[in-house]
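CO-FOLDING WORKSHEET

Operator: S.A.
Ligand of interest: copper (II) ion
Run index: 412
Mode: holo prediction, single chain
Checklist:
[x] sequence pasted
[x] SMILES validated
[ ] output reviewed
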Amino acid sequence: MSFWGQIGLQEGTSVLGVEIQALHDYGMIIMVGIFSFVGFMLFKVLVSKYFSVEYLQSQWLEVVWTILPCGLLLMLGLPSIKLLYLMDELELPEGTVKIVGHQWYWSYEYSDSFGSNYSYDSYMASGSESSGDYRLLEVSNRCVVAAMLHMRGLVTSDDVIHSWAIPSASIKADAIPGRINQIGLCFLRSGVFYGECSELCGINHSFMPICVEAVSVEVFTMWIVSNHESNLNNSNSMNKALLALSLIYDVFSSMWASVSSVVRKLIYLYYWWFKNVFYYGLYVPAEFCVKSGWSLLKWGSGMCLSFIKWVGWFLVSPLDASLYAVTYTFGQVCSGIWYVVTKPIEFTCWSVKSVIKGIRSLLSFSVFLISSVVSSMSSFTDDGFKEVVMERVNLNTFKFLWLLQDYYKNRR
Ligand SMILES: [Cu+2]
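OUTPUT RECEIVED:
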């Protein structure tokens, strides 16, 4: 949460929050640089006494001061666009929290893969200042999520437009009646994070705070399971079996998805290897060598054989053989001329084709280069951090699924 006298943003508490705040710092560095440079030049122009009546144009300078701002704009815009898309990218979340805005409180529902239909309302806690809590920020029931687990929030509203926001996690989603907005909830650590309704929704807009409590996966699972227990006490056994079945189906479908993606990648890798290394690197040159060698051999032996034959013929009837030799040579010369005339056209066609091919590969290479630059620029956290986060999220996912599975196994 924010404190008195705080100038910068709140410290990032979610995976994307860290990236987004780093993007802010990165943008600020570039913009401070631009402001300093432009300010310095302006100051220089105002106080400078140097001038030249002959220095009227410079093409190169114009090219530079067109390209340079374009590059700067790309450097500012591309990481931002990439992060924007990453924020909407939510593939196979482990759990879902439905967040519904009301006039003037929030309600949270946990009914996705947990097998429970648990929901509760979250009002602003009254008299929070006297109990030592944060004024106008503490709530009666907090939204509980698991830290370092891939979760999602579905935000909607019951009446007017509200907005569910946690500034430290860089989350803000409008709660619109009749629409569902999706947000990723992957907090980096356990803790309590505060926010407020961020869309003017009526007279008590200021008094519907948001309070998220991120806990460890073990605690979260225990909490979900205990809610499920209390829920099940009111439902029949048929329901229980259905819920267990749906859970098992979820586990198997996610396992199947990961296995099939790995197999797909392996097949693609094999195809790529076969096509590029085996086919172009080994097969095509070998085929060329064998084919051309064979045809050269055939041609050479054919020529030798016909020459020996011709010599025999010449000894028998020199006139006929000489006449044949002259016509044969003439035919060869004509075909040579034909070859010389048509070959340049063929060569031109071939070179045009190759140039087009070259341009195409150059374009695809530049697209590849730009995309790799974008992907390297949009990630501000180092690879070590990302690896740790991935490892922890994977571990927590397994832990979560295992705990739930264990629970259902013991229940049967
Ligand atoms: Cu509001």
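REVIEW:
Residues 162, 197, 199-201, 205, 208 surround copper (II) ion (CB under 6 Å).
The CA atoms of residues 125 and 138 lie 6 Å apart.
[x] output reviewed
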